[in-house]
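haha ok so turns out i had the wrong file open the whole time. this is the CORRECT one, sorry everyone. sequence first:
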Amino acid sequence: MLRQPVPNWILLGGFLLAAIAGCVNAVGFLGIHHQALSHMSGTVAILSTDLGRGHFGAAMHAAGVLLCFFLGCVVSGLVIRQSTLKLGRRYGAALAIESGLLFAAVYFYHGGSNYGDYLAAMACGLQNALATTYSGAVIRTTHVTGIVTDLGIVAGNFIRREPVETRRLGLMLVLLAGFLAGGILGGFGYMHWGFATLLLPAALTGLTGLGYVTYRHLRHVPVTPAR
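then structure:
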């Protein structure tokens, strides 16, 4: 149960971050390796099937993407440490790192290097670990499996005429809409600008981090020490 109202900064930030992940994932799917970057279920499936077929080069690439996503989560843990979403934590610094990773990914993509996939996956891993819970609600901004699951549960409760958590429903719909919008943007952008499309989520990530820091200062909320 979502125990309190969702602040506007979480709704806006969640939408923007989900859109960023959707855009990055779309570029990954349309790119050289047709590789999911913002969620790892498909990557593990690719890794296992390529190992089973003896395609060890492709399997090593999938393993690299998986490892870099994991390393992004590690970086998030080092920068923020806490898992509960709360105003005052060092999200601005984490988003700045993510922005830098995406800018670097564009550079390597243009050089035809696999490091483009690795850096973009690392950025997504960092973002996914950025904040995992808020007031009893699990928040994921780089994949929608959990979101669709939650929406299905809500629909089942509604059909049975049981109470529906409207706050949680609203949050899930915002995140789903963001990921969908980002995927549309990524597909359109890749068709016209190729890998340079990632410059948009890279810049947007940096601006989101700057917006968060500005909002925190306007609210006079000190940085929460990592512990």
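Helices lie at 8-30, 41-53, 56-79, 91-110, 115-128, 145-159, 166-193, 199-218.
again sry for the mixup
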